[in-house]
Amino acid sequence: MYFEPMKKFILPAIFFAAILISSCSVSKKINRPATKYLLHDEAFVHAQTGISVYEPATGKYWYNYQAEKYFTPASNTKLATCYAAMKYLGDSLIGITYDHVNDSTVVIKGMADPSFMHSDYRNNPVFDFLKKYKTIQVIDPAFDEYLGAGWGWGDYLEDYMAQRSAFPFHGNTVMVDWVNEHTLSFLPSYFQQHSVISGNLANGYDAYRPWDTNDFSFKSGRTKHSEIPFRPDEKTLQNLLKDTLKSDVETIEKYSGNLTDIIHSQPTDSLLKPMMHRSDNFFAEQSLLMVSERLLGEMSDRKIIDTLLKTDYKLMPQKPSWVDGSGLSRYDLFSPKDFVFILNKMKDDFGMDRIKNILPTGGTGTISSYYKQDSGYIFVKTGTLNGVVALSGFLYTKKNKLLIFSVLVNNHRGSATSIRKGIEKFIQELRDKY
Fold this sequence. Notes:
By secondary structure, this protein is an alpha+beta fold. Among the domains are: 31-87 and 270-433, Beta-lactamase; 170-231, no CATH class. The chain has ten helices and 16 strands. Strands 2-1-16-15-14 form a five-stranded antiparallel β-sheet, with helices on both faces. A five-stranded mixed β-sheet has the order 12-5-4-3-13. A three-stranded antiparallel β-sheet has the order 7-6-11, with no helix packed on it. The longest helix is centred in the first third of the chain and has 33 residues, at 7-39.
């Protein structure tokens, strides 16, 4: 009878011990495929690898390996941007705010919406609205941070590094197609008058422009089609709008009236889905600027990131070094546990149905060549830079357990394909055995 009062302490202790033993057992089991496919595999042996596997239903980590260390995440950074966009951009994007001066004149302000005149969208409500006016006055927001901190300047002509702006036009790229040895076609056509062709383009072209101008030059090469970023400065936007709308367009520094009216452009998720499926850097950068404009009334990636880290992300396991929306920057540093935190928050706040529509599954998007047998059971974001492969997302196991995982690999010297295949084998074993 002396032991009767101790029952209420003994039973919980036994229960806790059972959970602890079970948790350790799962961790040991997962360590085997992690070691086999990731840590000791030839493709990984000289790299740095971080792994975290979490079960949201129990709030327990199943496995962690260097999960609190910082890694360059590449496009996994888009997960942080995507959550903020899902929360703060509403159901549809704001294309412009405006003040109707009279039947022929309107004053507008760009809201960083990247869908204006973009080839992804057939309907363009902002264009349909603006073409009714003879005179358009565009407020200059004095935004000129076209390139992000830590971006590779040598890549400024690559299509994945379109420059940012307050009023994007055609994705801030010019589409150039080879027609014949003497002719190229341009979209937007405005850039044709700013292009010089040197010599005979018998088999295609090579393109060049100085980093700080939109003076394009072309010489003989092998390219038949390309999308080349242009510099989206104030004057270029003004001329593009003039050329496209056939209206008088002027830029104004200040406006004393009220820009209270709004033109919505596209459903928000119609932007976020391609952003995550094809890992669209431009959409990600503009999404972060749109969130900044909505919350702060100005477009500043630095200020909105600081705000988000102090609010939505204040409980992150490790405070990241986060500097851009896309993950192009080498300054970005996150831990695997950070991505587990973001994904779990995304699930809790928006539900898996919306997430499944936004993130690619097996055989689609950036994992079109992977996880084909698991289509509909895995929803992830990839990340790739030179020496970097990342994969974070959701996995439904064959026992219908939902897991959140993050695998970040830095400084590998082999092929990215070998790294991706190793991660696929590891994830497949998680799915099959649990």
